[in-house]
Amino acid sequence: MRRWTLMIVMLCTTLAGSILPAQAQALADPAFRVGVFDPESLWKLTDLGKKYNTDLTAARDRLQTEIDKKSQTLEDMKDKLRQQQASLSEERITQMQKDILARRTELDRMNEDATKEMKYQLNDVQGRFQQMLLQTVEVFGKERNYALILNKGVTDYNASSIDVTQDLIAKFNEMHKGAGALPAAAAKKPPEKPKTPPKDPGRD
Fold first, then answer.
1. Alpha carbon distance 155, 94 (integer Å)
2. Is residue 41 part of a domain?
3. pLDDT tens by residue, 108-158
4. In-domain check, residue 134
5. I need a labelling partner for 34 at 20 to 30 A (CA). Which of 6, 65, 106, 177 fits?
6. Cα separation of 127 and 160, whole Å?
7. Which residues of 57-70 are buried (b: 16+ CB within 10 A; e: fewer)?
8. Is 133 among the domain residues?
9. What is the CATH number of the domain that holds 110?
């Protein structure tokens, strides 16, 4: 039994001796540079990321203001019905209830449209930002001779000395200075002028 145990230990030692030096040599090689970065910091701290976040917040606030106005109008209509119900005819009460239901439906639709618009803008902006980030990392890595640059989210530990987040922020700002604004996802087109109806030949 001891003989087999000894043979296994010797085999493991031999394998470790053949693999670990190669790995250690690669990591010790000055040409094998490794860096990590925090993508969340680039989204929040780059000039373009700040602009996108500001624009998204403004778009959300604009939509929320419109929804709040519709919601207040609906509440006012409901209050009016409650206050006047005792003195109104059945016909008038029924009409006001229909108006309230129609306004409720309109508000629900507005909420749905606003949610879709914000999702579209967020996905579009983050997709474009991600492409620019990948381009930045690639250019930065080649310029600085990095063999590997990792997203911090996929690492369990990294030394602070290999964090290149701040350098990437500077590089991103340099490469994408003056990049475009948010897409007008729900920009409403101006109403088209009504076309002149064809003349009725029978009325000439």
1. 64
2. yes
3. 999 999 999 999 999 999 999 999 999 999 999 999 999 999 999 999 999
4. yes
5. 177
6. 28
7. eebeeebeeeeeeb
8. yes
9. 3.30.910.20
